[in-house]
Amino acid sequence: MDTVKQLKWRYATKKFDAQKKLSKEKLEVLKQAFNLTATSYGLQTIKMVVLENKAVREPLVEHAFNQKQVLDASHLLIICIQNNILDEDVVKYYDNIKGIRNTAETILKPYREGLIQMMEKMSVDERQRWSTNQAYIALGNLMTVCAMESIDSCPMEGFVPAKFDDILKLTDKGLKSVLLLPVGYRAEDDMFSEFKKVRKPIEEAVVEI
Ligand SMILES: Cc1cc2nc3c(=O)[nH]c(=O)nc-3n(C[C@H](O)[C@H](O)[C@H](O)COP(=O)(O)O)c2cc1C
């Protein structure tokens, strides 16, 4: 697989083929890619909502500045953050390490207490911003995996999160939407697929010291 070739193949898809669906296997790869995304401390205070139902997606379009990708893509991935990070999230995380790696409590205790203290020093806003940083890492990871799997995608900040949260009842799940990633297959007549990539010369983008 030619990595650069696939990265050049990828573009922010403006028009999806509404008839083409991702296979279960492809969707599974994207779920795995999301879950395998690195997060700060490994705490995973983000979640990915997978939305396929078009009737549920229809009313979302107007709250995404009428960007039709939200409806036409095979699936709409919504990257969310937790509304808050509680002590119990940190405790659960270290319990998971204990269960999976059989790590001794004496080793884990100082790390767990240190992380709880760090979170307690942050305001809810700061915790949300911290989680949002993780959401962007997941977005980048998913976009690259999509490119490698020849899946089209469009990263999107252009929507009204409060409306999405309300319509999809994400608040009831303790979540806030922060990013969208419609995924599927480009429409044959999406003219953007023919456009040349606009990037700075590599010597300008990359600083070698
Ligand atoms: C965080 C982020 C948010 C974006 N939001 C939107 C959006 O709401 N709608 C859209 O059509 N494109 C959106 N884009 C796509 C960018 O405009 C696009 O990636 C950029 O112009 C480079 O083009 P390329 O991805 O086709 O190479 C977004 C990209 C990123 C990374």
Automatic annotation (TrEMBL):
Gene3D superfamilies: NADH Oxidase (3.40.109.10). GO terms for molecular function: oxidoreductase activity. Keywords: Flavoprotein, FMN, NADP, Oxidoreductase. The keyword Oxidoreductase applies. Residues 7-185 form the Nitroreductase domain. The keyword rRNA processing does not apply. Its cofactor is FMN. Belongs to the nitroreductase family. This is NAD(P)H-dependent oxidoreductase. It comes from Hyunsoonleella aquatilis.
